[in-house]
Design goal:
By secondary structure, this protein is of the alpha/beta class. The chain has helices at 4-11, 42-56, 74-83, 111-131, 152-169, 195-205, 224-233, 259-271, 294-313, 317-325, 329-340, 345-354, 361-368, 370-377; strands at 17-19, 61-66, 87-93, 135-138, 143-144, 175-179, 189-190, 209-214, 237-242, 282-285. It is built from 14 helices and 10 strands. It binds beta-L-rhamnopyranose and manganese (II) ion (MN).
């Protein structure tokens, strides 16, 4: 087994970014169940995200979604985050909730609608200038539902044109992160359906364009760790959107559906050296807590990523290399499984204690009284949520 202390020193520097939208109400197209105490504005979302960081110590940034998190002055929001002990992270553009976008945003056949969508993306870069965010994450719902509905190649041209305009607007320290998704809301073609499409567009754009792997955006049975390994090797993995899926884009708690897959993904990250402190990969959560309480849902998500990471760090890479070189199929597999089957919870509890944190973040949150406080205080106003 690899060195526990070495694993701990990497875990100490791990950073996981929280999605602001995880704290708002969410649901399916059938029903959004409102929860008491849910934030009514971006400031309250930030307070909740800071709470997750306070208990876990590894979630110091929160991603914004524009216009869901639109405020008059992003510097004020940034200061609020700082006062709460966190900073603002990735800016997510939202060009999927306007009536104009029924037939697409940047790939819409109507040039005026394409212009409107592009203007929003450019406005998101303005937001980044104010928040100091490094990454602009783009996910497009664009696509078609019926064969013949639109010209597939023309839509790729329109996409490339918009991406290029955004890329050229970025500052030297800013990046474009392109996310793909197999299907939904479009059911016949998505304009960015898979990592290959995202990769090809990013290659064309340049060094500061990278791919986001949302773990819920693949066909069942897809070997996601292979994609991760490939993109890492090509220097094109920009970010993860972590979540779990049983069926499609379920947005459930990461590590809930398939903790072994999460371990395999993180093992690829670890062996590529991409967990190092200077790594430029954004490890984000992209989840919705439809029926479970949201702050504990985020705490559980963070600790699930930590547990999978710890196991990945415990793989005895020397023994693995020997087994691989000698063609010892079962031996190599056993080395990996030994690490996966290790109970890393005591190690993580120890790490938290060393960092002055409660070893049990879920318990500490429950005891903190925060949940009761926000229920009592957040009365009136309109709860944040993405509708439906
Ligand atoms: C999309 C995609 C994006 C996220 C939105 C809320 O399916 O995963 O990353 O911003 O959902
Ligand atoms: Mn996502």
């Amino acid at each position: 087994m690899a060195d526990r202390e070495a694993a701990k020193s990497v875990l100490r520097t791990q950073k996981i970014e929280l999605p602001s939208w995880a704290f708002g109400n969410s649901g399916t197209r059938f029903k959004v169940f409102a929860q008491r105490g849910v934030p009514r504005d971006p400031f309250e979302k930030i307070a909740d995200a800071a709470r997750v960081h306070a208990h876990t110590g590894v979630a110091p940034t929160v991603a914004l979604h524009i216009p869901w998190d639109q405020v008059d002055d992003f510097q004020v929001l940034g200061r609020a985050a700082k006062d709460a002990g966190i900073t603002l992270g990735t800016v997510n553009a939202n060009v999927f909730q306007d009536d104009d976008y029924m037939l697409g945003s940047v790939t819409n056949p109507n040039p005026a609608i394409r212009r409107k969508a592009l203007d929003h993306l450019l406005a998101c870069v303005d937001v980044m200038d104010q928040t100091g965010s490094r990454d602009l994450k783009l996910w497009f719902s664009d696509g078609t539902n019926y064969p013949g509905q639109d010209n597939i190649r023309a839509r790729q041209d329109r996409l490339a044109e918009a991406l290029d305009a955004v890329y050229r607007r970025l500052g030297d320290d800013q990046r474009l992160i392109l996310e793909y998704k197999l299907f939904e809301p479009a059911f016949y073609t998505m304009d960015v359906p898979d990592w290959g499409t995202a990769f090809a567009h990013c290659l064309q754009l340049g060094d500061r364009a990278k791919v986001c792997v949302d773990t819920g955006h693949h066909a069942p049975g897809t070997n996601i760790e292979f994609i991760v390994a490939f993109l890492l090797r090509a220097g094109k993995l920009g970010a993860f959107d972590f979540n779990s899926r049983f069926y499609a884009d379920d947005d459930l708690i990461v590590g809930a559906a398939d903790p072994f897959q999460l371990f395999r993904i993180l093992f690829e990250v670890v062996t590529a050296g991409a967990l190092a402190e200077d790594s430029d990969i954004a490890f984000m959560l992209d989840q919705c807590h439809n029926i479970e309480p949201k702050i504990p849902g985020q705490i559980r998500s963070v600790t699930n990523v930590q547990e999978a990471t710890a196991k990945a760090l415990l793989v005895d890479t020397d023994a693995l290399a020997v087994a691989q070189a000698s063609g010892d199929v079962l031996g190599a597999n056993a080395v990996l499984m030994d690490a996966y089957n290790t109970d890393v919870r005591p190690l993580l509890a120890e790490l938290r204690e060393e960092q002055g944190l409660d070893p049990d973040p879920m318990g500490a949150y429950a005891r903190s009284g925060y949940a009761e406080r926000i229920v009592a205080e957040r009365v009136g106003g309109t709860q944040a949520g993405w509708g439906a």
